Task: inverse folding
C-alpha cells in the first residue's frame, strides 16, 4: 500500500490580492522599466519612480504617454490615479516616458546631464519619426552632432562612406527644393552616399567636441526647425468646415491649413479666453476679428486639447523669465491669467452625463452655432465643459495670500526641547516639595516653633 504524502500548501505572493499591479514603462533609450504600484497611485508617483531609477534629476520636463482605444497617443494626468485612467481610456497598460515640455532659446533650463541626454534622445526620435521636418543641409548638421555626442571623434580609417551609410539615421521626411522627400527612398535616388559623405566632412570639423557640447548643439539646431515641440490635432474650422491642424506648443497655438503654407499663430499673450464645449474648441483673442472656433472629432478630443493648452501655458508662465530671451514680454503687454475650471474628476463625470442634454443651456446659445465674430453667451460659457477666463479675474496678490495664512513659531531643536522639558519638570517638583513641607511640618520644625515652659524653683 503506497504511503500518502501530505504536502503543505505554500503561500504564494499574489499581486492582485495585495491591491497592487505591475506596469511597464518604455524608456527613451529603448529599455523598459517595470513599476509596482497600488491601485490608488497617481501618475506623478509612477513618473517620479521611473525618473529616480534613471537618475533624471529634472522630471518636470517629462510625462507619461499611453495609446487610447482610438490608437491616439495621450498624456497621463499626473494628479489623478493611474490605473483608473488606463482602465477607462487606454488600449493596454503600456506607458512611454517622453518629453512633454519642450524648451526654447538654448538649454539654459536643463542643468542635469542625464536630463539633457534623454531630451536629446527625444529629439532624435522626433526627427526619425517625422514630427520634426528639416532640409538636407540641416539633416547633415544634426547627424554630425548626433554622431559626435554618441561615438566621439571621427576615425578616418574606420568610418568610411560604405561603413556609415547603413548606420546613420536620417529624418523620415526632409525638404528638398520645397518638396518633401521620404527618408526611406534615399538609397534609391542616390542621395544616401552624398548625405553620408557630407556628414563625415561636418563630423570631422567637430573634433574634440565634448558630449555635452554636441548635445547642446543638436538641441539648439532642432529648436529652429518646423514642428519642434508641437502637439498636433486634426479639426475642422467651424466657419467654413475646412480641415485644419491645431498645433499646441510652449509659445502658443498654431493653426495650419492646406491652402496656406504660413500657419496662423496665436501667442499666449494675444489670447484672452480658451473655451471647450463638447466638440467645439474656441480661441478668443484681444482682437475679436482674430478669434476662431474649431470642431474636434469627439468631446473627449476637445477636452484634451483644452487641457494641453492649460498645461503648456502653465509651464510657460512658470519659466517665462528664462524664456524671455527668445520671446520678450514687454511690461505694457497684458498677461493672460489661466484659471482651471472643470479639471476635477467630479466635474468631468458631470460633464459626461450632461453632454447629451442641452436643457441647462440657454436655448438661444444651444441652437445657434459658435462663430468667431459672435462670442459665447453667459449661460453657454457657464455650462461649457471647460472654460478659461483669462482677463476677467486677476490673480490675488501674493502678500495678501500670505497674510491669510496662520503664523507659526519656529520649533526648537531636539536638545533644546529636552532641556526645556526637564527644567519644567524640575521646577514643578520643587514647587510640590515646598508646598508639601509648608502644609505638613516635620517634628523638628514643630519643636523649633513650639514654646516650652520651664517651671520656676521659687515657691
Result:
Amino acid at each position: 500500500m503506497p504511503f500518502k504524502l501530505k504536502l503543505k500548501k505554500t503561500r504564494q505572493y499574489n499581486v492582485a490580492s495585495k491591491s497592487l499591479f505591475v506596469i511597464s514603462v518604455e524608456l527613451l533609450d529603448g529599455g523598459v522599466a517595470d513599476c509596482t504600484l497600488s491601485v490608488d497611485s497617481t501618475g506623478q508617483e509612477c513618473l517620479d519612480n521611473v525618473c529616480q531609477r534613471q537618475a533624471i534629476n529634472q522630471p518636470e520636463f517629462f510625462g507619461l504617454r499611453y495609446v487610447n482605444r482610438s490608437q491616439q497617443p495621450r498624456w497621463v494626468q499626473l494628479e489623478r490615479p493611474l490605473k483608473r485612467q488606463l482602465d477607462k481610456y487606454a488600449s493596454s497598460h503600456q506607458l512611454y516616458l517622453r518629453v512633454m515640455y519642450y524648451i526654447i532659446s538654448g538649454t539654459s533650463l536643463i542643468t542635469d546631464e542625464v536630463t539633457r541626454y534623454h531630451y536629446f534622445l527625444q529629439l532624435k526620435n522626433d526627427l526619425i519619426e517625422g514630427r520634426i521636418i528639416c532640409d538636407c543641409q540641416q539633416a547633415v548638421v544634426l547627424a554630425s552632432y548626433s554622431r559626435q555626442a554618441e561615438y566621439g571623434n571621427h576615425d578616418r580609417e574606420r568610418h568610411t562612406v560604405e561603413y556609415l551609410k547603413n548606420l546613420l539615421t536620417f529624418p523620415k521626411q526632409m525638404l528638398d527644393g520645397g518638396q518633401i522627400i521620404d527618408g526611406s527612398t534615399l538609397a534609391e535616388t542616390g542621395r544616401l552616399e552624398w548625405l553620408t559623405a557630407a556628414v563625415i566632412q561636418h563630423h570631422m570639423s567637430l573634433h574634440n567636441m565634448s558630449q555635452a557640447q554636441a548635445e547642446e548643439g543638436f538641441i539648439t539646431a532642432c529648436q529652429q526647425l518646423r514642428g519642434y515641440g508641437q502637439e498636433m490635432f486634426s479639426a475642422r474650422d467651424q466657419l467654413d468646415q475646412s480641415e485644419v491642424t491645431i498645433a499646441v506648443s510652449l509659445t502658443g497655438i498654431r493653426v495650419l491649413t492646406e491652402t496656406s503654407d504660413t500657419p496662423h499663430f496665436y501667442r499666449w499673450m494675444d489670447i484672452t479666453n480658451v473655451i471647450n464645449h463638447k466638440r467645439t474648441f474656441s480661441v478668443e483673442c484681444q482682437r475679436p476679428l482674430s478669434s476662431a472656433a474649431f470642431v474636434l472629432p469627439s468631446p473627449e478630443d476637445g477636452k484634451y486639447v483644452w487641457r494641453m493648452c492649460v498645461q503648456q501655458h502653465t509651464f510657460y508662465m512658470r519659466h517665462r523669465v528664462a524664456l524671455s530671451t527668445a520671446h520678450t514680454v514687454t511690461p505694457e503687454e497684458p498677461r493672460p491669467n489661466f484659471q482651471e475650471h472643470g479639471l476635477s474628476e467630479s466635474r468631468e463625470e458631470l460633464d459626461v452625463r450632461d453632454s447629451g442634454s442641452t436643457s441647462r443651456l440657454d436655448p438661444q446659445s444651444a441652437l445657434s452655432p459658435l462663430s468667431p465674430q459672435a462670442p459665447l453667451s453667459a449661460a453657454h460659457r457657464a455650462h461649457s465643459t471647460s472654460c478659461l477666463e483669462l482677463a476677467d479675474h486677476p490673480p490675488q496678490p501674493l502678500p495678501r495670500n500670505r497674510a491669510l495664512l496662520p503664523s507659526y513659531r519656529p520649533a526648537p531643536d531636539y536638545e533644546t526641547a529636552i532641556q526645556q522639558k526637564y527644567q519644567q519638570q524640575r521646577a514643578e517638583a520643587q514647587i510640590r516639595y515646598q508646598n508639601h513641607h509648608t502644609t505638613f511640618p516635620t517634628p523638628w520644625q514643630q519643636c523649633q516653633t513650639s514654646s516650652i515652659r520651664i517651671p520656676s524653683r521659687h515657691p
Q: What stands out?
A: The chain has 15 helices and 16 strands. The chain has three domains: 16-99, 113-222, 231-354+368-400. Residues 278 and 355 are 7 Å apart (CA to CA).
